[in-house]
Every structure is written in structure tokens, then in C-alpha cells.
Design a protein that fits this description.
- The structure holds two protein chains of two kinds.
- Chain A is mainly α.
- Chain A contains five helices and no strands.
- In chain A, helix 2 packs antiparallel against helix 4 (about 70-90).
- Chain B is an all-alpha fold.
- Chain B has helices at about 10-35, 40, 45-55, 60-75, 80-105, 110-115, 120-150, 155-205, 205-215, 245-260, 265-270, 275-305, 325-330, 335-370, 380-405, 405-420, 425-435, 440-460, 470-495, 530-550.
- Classes of the chains: A mainly alpha, B mainly alpha.
- The interface of A and B includes residues 33 and 61 of A.
Chain lengths: ~120, ~550
């Protein structure tokens, strides 16, 4: 690893003996493993399922919860939460992927997410 | 017979969850291969994740079903478990105690006792914690099997084994990180199922006002709607049947502080945060959702009380513990039913996983490495940890089957171990604030506290002393255990030799470490919204306001 590349190193990347490829792979895995993406993905999936059931379900299913179409409302709610989670994860990733910041010359990396 | 008619769709929702949980384990395993130090990556978790995991580790189904049961039995006064109990203790842990745990670089709570006191104190605490934790994991597993049996109709044995195998798969694959990710995921799903259920139940009762009217006409009456009525000493009329001293000191100061600040299954979540600041914020961030969880347990409990005829009676399907499953069966159609069952199953698994991950850490570091095989390489202890995980789960399965046959024996064993937990807070608080506390004082204090709690409970159950209801008796037992522990700890300290100051640096109030490592300080942590005083003060203020509202 050459001297100039040092400033691009994020705080979560390995500090010893790692090549660029390792760093990139590590950053990718850290991002794929981001809990916000997992929660977001699962909530979007569940949200879509519930919303569909809420629309096409039988009258009995729609009215079971004291006349409220609980599948529809919860489904829409879960969709919103899921989308917000994914948007948050994309806007502020856990680990900056080195290629994305390379060559801009500022030496800055994206900050890790708010805690 | 309480049976939910789960459809194929509901099963599919549950299956998706299992796949995601196992997937997390597999991804965690992959990241070990690609040169990320897995344990370090575990220690780099941000505070909001560890904060949610902190309360989710405790938000097992025993907690959810149990607190809904308390809601039906005791009414609004159940908030004491949260607002007098958990929240102040969590704030205390974050502001006062975390610097000692994190600053001493201990890997477990018993390890702190080893540094502060001596090996016998450490071994006593580590061994009782390990045994108690694995037994509680078994009880959790049994409770999970029972609910799956009730709701989906699987046999209890099948449910125990399937659940244990899934937990074993994701913990041995991904370790603590896997467990914490699952806890956070589980937290969101349980809220996504309990929040709609609570709102629907409330709507069906005609809103909060309508529910209040119905509770006034129920067995609980007006007392069931207040937190602080009928608590006067000598004139106790509240449903909990304990006076304010028992509640504030027994439940709040001793039992809750003991559980939240010294139970390693909890503290481990804060220790996995990325730095001291995040570690301190972990319980403080967890405190905020904790303040509002009673709404999701007590309201369903009250609705079940006023709308299910015969709740709490002799019919086993209508016991208080079934308050939430009964409402799920009544209100939730297919689709939402799947989400709710998934949330409950996930909550149970998270409870089992929290116990097992703390068990394997204590067995590996505090028992095996400390007393059996010292000075081996890291890979060796990693292997021991994996074996301890599998061993712990096998013991839990056995415990679950014992619990299936002998419910009362399990209750008694759990009670026995609660005697060890009750006095623990006295030992910690004196050790942290009084540097004169000697090594042997720790050991004899714990022993005295255990016997204090044990003898109190025996005398109560023989009828020799009258302490009110069983719940009130457990509060008084804790107060006596605390007092006995404190008295013996101070007494023994005065007649034995204390440790020199040098050995206590970083472990005791007023004796800070000489060198503060600057690289551990993240400038972003200086932001006002990350101040532990602000976060902690805000949580306390909120709790005070809520107590006044529900007085």
C-alpha cells in the first residue's frame, strides 16, 4: 500500500496487511451486513404482503379487527418504516467503500452513521 | 382450547423470518473468512443498535406475556416494574457504572469481581451465574414451546428441539453479533405486532376512556387505574398488595438495580459498543423505548381482563399469561396473525440467545480460562466458546424437558438463584464507592445476602412471618438480602486487609487510571445530543411526568 492512499482508510477497515481488495470486500460485507438494510428489507417484504392481503382479502379478514382493516394499515406502516430504514442505510453507510472516495483529493471519508 | 388458525400465509411469514435469522448467521460467518476481525467488528456496534439490543435481550416472551398478565392482575400499578424499576436502574448503569466496566476492560461482569475482589468471589459469582443462566434459557425454551404448541398445535417436544436448533445454528455461526442483530430485528417485529394489537383493542373498548370505565366495573376497580394509590404503610389496598417501601426499595432499588446493572446478559450488550461513550449511551438509549413498552403490555392485559370472561380463573386456557395470545386470536386476521406469531417466537428465541451468549462467555473466560486451562491461544478459547454454546443449549433442552414434567421444581430452582442475584447490587455499589472494601468482604457479603434472602423466604412460606402477597414477600426478601450483604461487606472490610490503591485504579470511584488513551475518544461524541447527563436526565424527567399523570 502506498503512502498517498493512507488518508482514504476508513476507521473500520483493517489496519494491518490488508490490500485494497480486502478493504473493498470488508466494506462491502459491512454494508451488506448493515442491520438497517436487513430490517428495511424484511419490513418492505412484510409490508407488501400485508398490504396485498389487506386489499384482496375476504370481508371477514378485513373486518376481524373490530372493523378495522388491520392488514392494510399495518402493511402500509411497515412499508414506510422499511423504506426509511433502507434510505438511512444508503445515505450514511457503515463503512465507506474505498473506490467511491478515491480520486477526489479531499482525503475525506464519509462519516459513519449517527449513533 | 386456545388455538389460532394459522394459514399457509402465516406460516410463510414465520418461515421468512427463520431464513433471515439463519442468513444473518451465514453472513456473519462469511465476514470472519474475509479478514475482518469478527470480535472487533462486534465491538464496533453503534449505540442505537446496542441500546435496542439492551432492552430486547430482556424483552423475551416471558417479559411480554408476564407483564400483560401483571397488567390484567394488578392494573396500571404494573408500571412500577418499568418506571421505578428498569428505567432509573438503566440510567444509573449508563451514567455511573459503565465507566467502571468499560474502563476496566473487563470482558464480563464476574471478571470485574475478580479484579476488584479475589478469586473465590469471582468463582462463586461466575458459577452461580452460569448455572442460573442456562436454567433460565431452558425455562425460556419451554415457554416458547408452550406458546407454539398452544397457537400452532405443534407438539411441545418438537417445538423445543426446532427452536433450540435454530438458536444454536445462528449463535455458533455468528456469535454475539448474530445474537444482537436478531435482538434488534425482533424488537422491531414485536413492536409492529403489539402496537396495532393494542390500538385495535383500545378502539374496540371505546378508547382509553371507555377502557377506564370498564376497568372501574371489573374486579380491579378504581385502584386498577392508578400507580400510587393505596400504598400507605399499614393501609395497603392496591392490587399488588405491597406498600411504597417494598415497591421503591425492594422492587426499584434492590431488585431492578441488581438485575439491570449486574446481570451480564444485559451488561454484555453495552460492553459490545464501539467505545466508552457508546457503551454509556447503550442503556440510556434503551431506556426511552422501555418507558413506553408498558403501554403495549398493560393495555392488552387490561383489555383481556374486561373482555375475556373467566380470565385468571381455573380454566388453564384462560390464565393471565394468555392475555396477549387470547387477544391475538380474537382480533388478528391472517397476515397480521403471522406477524404476531413471528414476533412472539422471535422474542422467545432472543431471550434464549441472550442467555446462551452470556453463558458461553462466562464459561469460557471466567471458568475455563481462569481456573482450568490458562495461557492458551485465542483460537483455542474460540473453540471452547463454540463448544460451550452447544453444551449450554443441550443443557437448556434438558432443562426444558424437566420443566415440562416438573413445573414447580423449576420455579423453586429459579427462586433459589434469584437469592444470589438479589444481594449482588449491594456488593457492587459498596465496592465501587468505598475503596476500603476488602477482597474477602466481597465473598462473605454475597454469602450473607444469599442466606438473608433464603431464610426470609423460608420463614414466609412457613407462615412464621407475614409479608403480604407473594410478590410483596419477594420485594421484602430482596431488601433483607441487600441489608445483610451490605452489613457483612462493611463488617468484614473493617477487620481484613484492603487492596493497595495501585491495584484498584479504574475499578473504584476516585481512583482513575493514570493514562487516558486519546485514540479512543471520538470528537463526534462531544455533541450535546450525545451527553449522557442529557440522555439520562431526559429519561428520568419523562418517567417523573408519567408517574404524576398516572398517579
Amino acid at each position: 500500500m502506498s503512502e498517498q492512499e493512507q488518508p482514504f482508510r476508513g476507521p473500520t477497515t483493517p489496519s494491518t496487511g490488508a490490500t485494497d481488495e480486502d478493504e473493498l470486500a470488508a466494506a462491502r460485507i459491512a454494508n451488506r451486513f448493515d442491520i438497517r438494510r436487513i430490517i428495511g428489507g424484511l419490513f418492505v417484504l412484510y409490508g407488501v404482503i400485508l398490504t396485498i392481503v389487506g386489499i384482496v382479502g375476504s370481508e371477514e379478514v378485513k373486518n376481524k379487527a373490530a372493523g378495522i382493516n388491520v392488514n392494510l394499515w399495518t402493511g402500509l406502516g411497515m412499508l414506510v418504516v422499511g423504506v426509511l430504514m433502507i434510505a438511512w442505510a444508503l445515505a450514511r453507510p457503515v463503512a465507506p467503500e474505498p473506490e467511491a472516495t478515491r480520486g477526489r483529493g479531499s482525503g475525506r471519508i464519509r462519516r459513519s452513521p449517527a449513533t | 382450547m386456545l388455538r389460532l388458525d394459522a394459514s399457509a400465509l402465516d406460516y410463510a411469514i414465520l418461515a421468512v423470518y427463520f431464513l433471515v435469522v439463519l442468513g444473518i448467521g451465514v453472513v456473519a460467518r462469511m465476514s470472519v473468512k474475509t479478514d475482518i476481525d469478527f470480535f472487533l467488528s462486534g465491538r464496533s456496534l453503534p449505540a442505537w443498535i446496542t441500546g435496542l439490543a439492551f432492552i430486547a435481550a430482556n424483552l423475551g416472551a416471558l417479559e411480554i406475556l408476564g407483564m400483560a398478565a401483571n397488567g390484567a392482575q394488578y392494573g396500571v400499578a404494573t408500571v412500577h416494574f418499568y418506571w421505578i424499576g428498569a428505567v432509573p436502574a438503566m440510567v444509573f448503569l449508563g451514567i455511573v457504572m459503565m465507566p467502571f466496566y468499560y474502563g476496566a476492560k473487563v470482558r464480563s461482569v464476574p471478571e470485574y469481581l475478580r479484579l476488584r475482589f479475589n478469586n473465590p468471589t469471582h468463582a462463586l459469582n461466575a458459577a452461580t451465574f452460569a448455572v442460573a443462566t442456562v436454567l433460565i434459557a431452558g425455562v425460556n425454551l419451554f415457554a416458547l414451546a408452550l406458546i407454539v404448541h398452544l397457537m400452532l398445535g405443534w407438539s411441545i417436544s418438537t417445538a423445543i428441539i426446532v427452536a433450540a436448533l435454530i438458536v444454536m445454528a445462528y449463535i455458533t455461526l455468528g456469535g454475539l453479533t448474530s445474537a444482537i442483530y436478531n435482538e434488534v430485528l425482533q424488537f422491531f417485529i414485536i413492536v409492529a405486532s403489539l402496537l396495532p394489537l393494542t390500538l385495535i383493542a383500545l378502539h374496540d373498548m371505546g378508547g382509553w376512556g371507555g377502557l377506564q370505565d370498564k376497568v372501574r366495573d371489573s374486579a380491579l376497580g378504581e385502584e386498577g387505574l392508578h400507580a400510587w394509590q393505596g400504598l400507605a404503610v399499614g393501609n395497603v389496598t392496591n392490587p399488588i398488595d405491597a406498600n411504597w417501601i417494598a415497591i421503591v426499595f425492594g422492587l426499584g432499588f434492590v431488585l431492578s438495580f441488581g438485575y439491570w446493572t449486574t446481570n451480564f446478559a444485559e451488561v454484555q450488550r453495552a460492553l459490545s459498543a464501539k467505545n466508552l461513550s457508546a457503551g454509556r449511551r447503550t442503556p440510556l438509549i434503551g431506556a426511552y423505548p422501555k418507558i413506553f413498552i408498558p403501554a403495549l403490555t398493560i393495555i392488552p392485559g387490561l383489555v383481556a381482563l374486561v373482555s375475556v370472561k373467566g380470565l385468571g380463573g381455573s380454566n388453564p386456557d384462560l390464565q393471565y399469561n394468555n392475555a396477549i395470545p387470547l387477544l391475538i386470536g380474537r382480533y388478528l386476521p391472517e397476515g397480521m396473525l403471522g406477524i404476531a406469531v413471528t414476533g412472539l417466537v422471535a422474542a422467545f428465541m432472543a431471550g434464549v440467545a441472550a442467555n446462551v451468549t452470556s453463558f458461553n462467555t462466562v464459561v469460557t473466560y471466567d471458568l475455563w480460562q481462569a481456573y482450568v486451562r490458562k495461557d492458551r491461544d485465542e483460537a483455542y478459547y474460540l473453540r471452547v466458546g463454540r463448544i460451550a454454546t452447544a453444551g449450554g443449549l443441550l443443557i437448556s433442552i434438558a432443562t426444558a424437558f424437566i420443566a415440562k414434567g416438573y413445573d414447580n421444581i423449576m420455579n423453586y430452582v429459579q427462586l433459589l438463584f434469584s437469592y444470589f442475584n438479589a444481594p449482588l447490587f449491594a456488593t457492587f455499589i459498596i465496592a465501587m464507592f468505598w475503596k476500603r472494601t476488602t477482597p474477602w468482604a466481597g465473598f462473605w457479603g454475597l454469602i450473607a445476602g444469599f442466606f438473608g434472602a433464603f431464610i426470609t423466604h423460608e420463614l414466609y412460606s412457613w407462615g412464621t412471618i407475614d409479608l403480604g402477597s407473594e410478590l410483596a414477600a419477594s420485594f421484602w426478601g430482596a431488601i433483607i438480602a441487600f441489608t445483610a450483604d451490605a452489613a457483612v461487606t462493611v463488617g468484614v472490610s473493617l477487620v481484613t486487609q484492603p487492596k493497595p490503591d495501585e491495584e484498584l485504579r479504574g475499578l473504584v470511584w476516585g481512583l482513575t487510571r493514570k493514562e487516558e488513551k486519546p485514540e479512543e475518544h471520538d470528537p463526534a461524541d462531544d455533541a450535546w445530543y450525545r451527553s449522557v447527563w442529557l440522555l439520562g436526565g431526559g429519561a428520568i424527567a419523562l418517567v417523573v411526568i408519567l408517574n404524576i399523570v398516572f398517579i
